[in-house]
Amino acid sequence: MIRNDVTAAIAQRRSIRKYTAKPVTDEQLETILECGTLAPSGMNLQQWFVAAVRDPALLKEISALQKEAVLAMPDLPPVMLERAKDPAFDATFGAPVVLIVTAEGSRGSMDACLLGENMVLAAQSLGLGTCISGSVTMAFQGEKGTALLKKLGVPEGYAPVFGITLGEAAEAPEDKPREKKYAII
């Protein structure tokens, strides 16, 4: 593989599930969000909205609502249920920032995924860790979840697609083997 700054960030990025308490600076956060908005979007509609949550009380609320939602769904994978039963488990992994990525309409979710990938790679290039979490979106179900979306300033008609935990990594996970599932024809 050809190595440069971009391919290095892609190759080095890992999902981080333990963070230090060191805050993400405004400059870092704004850079990451701006890199997200530089992602391509269908017909340039940019049908995304990101709520960057730093408030510790809101992060605790997101974690509590996610755990509540998981426990209400007994058909989920056992590992998810066990985590949710653990009083010490934090669905945000102790990250100082969680990006709640939302999209408008069904077509916006692909664009939101492109925006998210730009943001995690930008974070990696800045020396920050990330973890993309689909389960964080479970916090936004029901009346409590809808109220939380309003607190976060999410526009009407936008729905959570995934969350991204963000901060200084307190772990260094090993690289996992990847299969080469592609063909050059």
Strands across the major sheet, in which order? 1-2-4-3
Structural class: alpha+beta
CATH topology: NADH Oxidase
Indicate the radius of gyration in whole angstroms: 17 Å
Annotate the secondary structure layout.
Blueprint: H1 5-12, H2 26-37, E1 48-53, H3 56-71, H4 78-85, E2 97-104, H5 108-125, E3 129-133, H6 142-151, E4 158-167
Helix pairs in contact: 1-5, 2-5, 3-4
Which descriptors apply to this entry?
185 residues; alpha+beta; NADH Oxidase; 4 strands
Structure overview:
The structure is a single chain. This protein has 185 residues and is α+β, with helices and mostly antiparallel strands. It is 39% helix and 16% strand. It has a single domain (5-167), classed as NADH Oxidase, CATH 3.40.109.10. The protein contains six helices and four strands, in the order H-H-E-H-H-E-H-E-H-E. The protein has a four-stranded antiparallel sheet.
What's the gist of this structure?
The protein has 185 residues and is of the alpha+beta class. 39% of the residues lie in helices and 16% in strands. It has a single domain, classed as NADH Oxidase, CATH 3.40.109.10.
